[in-house]
Design goal:
2 copies of one chain form a homodimer. The first copy, chain A, is an alpha/beta fold. Chain A has 13 helices and 12 strands. Chain A binds a DNA duplex through helix 2 and helix 4.
DNA sequence: CTGAAAGCGCTTACAG
DNA sequence: CTGAAAGCGCTTACAG
């Protein structure tokens, strides 16, 4: 391995000067700089990260810590996110460390990774409400950026989708079509995104003068099974049967489709369905019959902004300038229509 | 951040002794060791990787470099592999760096990553025939382990499936059922695994006294489209129509299924199909009708051996003891039967 | 504009 | 059984 000393020897300059020439400091003569650069290249010199890290406190590596391996239905999202981040950081000359925990002790994992001083910063995914990881990282003053964020918490850099707006879009569409009983299969109550969406749902319903009955909001996980179960319960109660259902993702919607079919209900004739987030691969979403109307948060689109935000955070930019909220996409397909009556 | 010096001060011992106590060297008194350990823990001491790396030449990080982002049909494999490796290495106290190139200059990427001295070793995936990366890594004496390997090349550590045996299993089954014309949609000609499988196919065909016509071996990529195209060509030629087709993976088999259906051929009545590698997610393989008979190389099962081999390589074990070939699984389902006539 | 020197946190011969 | 010292490869005040 070529070291700075080798380059110094080869150029007849000191290590100090070589280092500064290579880093492009202005106090080095232009011809000197060029000469050093040529020699360094010829010698195949690459700065040793460990040494640089030791003295400068930067390793050039950033990490993503996941609590557990992805489930099959999340594969698409996982790949887009992980592959996207790896490429986005590589483009910015940072190496990407992926750490998938077995879920046993997430904080200890972070602590070990951090203490080691190996990583310069983190991307956080799926923050929970009052997520302890966030407090931990803030406490240690470790740079990080969060995908998503908790409403009102402006202590960190984040890239988020406007979940409130996503719900408003869905309700506006359905209410505009004439639906009055609009149920909401909202997903996990512990997710800040779900919290924000429910608020948006309530606000939009109120704006249309529609009541939100307690039974209309059903929490659960993000699976098709949950969608099916919740739909079965909602549709069984004929007196209060909703004419439209908003689902927290397309997988949940698939569950709703199945149960609706089982009840002999046609979509969108008897029941309108709108979902957030395409968690199903494109192919499978297209297979849903009729094609599903969705508000969409594209993970792929989040990858570059996240890398960008983290890089800027590492460069010392103030947090207030590193908080981005993106409007959701809206893809109208064929699963929502006017109610029969 | 707590350093060795802090622990030394707190214990009243020297940095040297603390270091050796923590590393469990035998020349430190047991009570001393225990005391040091207690204090270190209390102080939340974690060794600084950069410093350790600088002096010891080890970073505690290993990497996987992929040439390009995965295609949707590979998502399942990608996730199992990447998540599996991350966990397998974490278990062995190594951090896992994932680098996904944009395919522009793979060797340069390796070179940069290596020169930086950031990674201790590599996992190589999908080696090509006479893969330049392998020569590059061998030249630099960088530890690495390959998933798969080129027959006859015993210069490196690898974990491989017995591809020759996989073909023999498939041919034995089909020939045993009475098939005489067995085609082989072998996949990419540039893959060592394909090379080995074709050899196995030829050997097994010969053993059963069956001729291998040139048209019987069709190369291509690994997609359903290739399966469909190749099957269409094979089935169109009625005079030489094969009664059985071996596919390089389940996706290719899906293409064959589709074309067979189009030709009004029933599987396995009119055409038997056997595939290697389940590249489709379980769910989708099960959806194939009839269920597909496969020889299977489980990526998930490769992850732990690969991590293990790399760790042992890093520890200096000789290469000859780090070459593992695993017998393929064989899952007989319902896509192969006696030919009609 | 250039160089000598200190130091980042650790490990490892080498003395005692 | 324990400690003083050198050194891994770099960066960065500090002098000239």
């Amino acid at each position: 391995m070529t070291t700075l000393r080798d380059v110094a020897k080869a150029t007849g300059l000191s290590v100090t000067t070589v280092s500064r020439a290579l880093r492009g400091f202005s106090d080095v003569t232009e011809p000197t700089r060029r000469h050093v650069e040529t020699v360094a290249r010829a010698l195949n010199y690459v700065p040793n990260q460990a040494a640089r890290k030791l003295v400068a406190g930067r390793s050039g590596m950033v990490g993503l810590v996941l609590e557990r391996p992805p489930q099959p239905f999340e594969y698409g999202h996982f790949v887009e996110f992980v592959a996207g981040l790896s490429q986005a950081f590589a483009k910015r000359d940072l190496d990407f460390v992926l750490h998938i925990s077995d879920g046993s002790n997430l904080l200890a994992t972070h602590q070990r990774l951090l203490g080691r001083g190996a990583l310069d910063g983190y991307v956080l995914l799926f923050p929970g409400i009052d997520d302890p990881r966030i407090d931990f990282l803030l406490e240690r003053a470790v740079p990080f950026v969060v995908h998503g964020h908790q409403g009102g918490d402006e202590r960190y850099a984040y890239f988020d989708t406007d979940n409130h707006a996503a719900s408003v879009i869905a309700v506006d569409l359905l209410a505009g079509l004439g639906h009055r009983r609009i149920a909401n299969l909202a997903g996990p109550a512990t997710w800040p995104s779900v919290e924000a969406r429910i608020q948006g749902y309530r606000d939009a319903m109120a704006a249309h003068g529609l009541a939100v009955e307690p039974r209309s909001i059903v929490h659960g996980d993000t699976s098709a099974a949950y969608g099916a179960q919740a739909a079965a319960a909602l549709l069984a109660d004929r007196a209060h049967r909703p004419s439209a259902i908003i689902c927290c993702n397309s997988l949940v919607a698939a569950g709703v489709y199945e149960v609706a079919r089982g009840h002999g209900l046609s979509i969108p004739g008897d029941l309108s369905v709108v979902a957030h987030d395409d968690v199903l691969p494109q192919v499978q979403t297209d297979l849903l019959d009729p094609p599903l109307t969705v508000t969409k948060l594209s993970l792929r689109d989040a990858v570059d902004p996240l890398a960008d935000l983290l890089v800027r955070r590492l460069a010392g930019e103030p947090i207030a300038s590193l908080q981005v909220t993106q409007a959701p996409d809206f893809i109208e397909r064929a699963s929502a229509a006017k109610p029969w009556r």
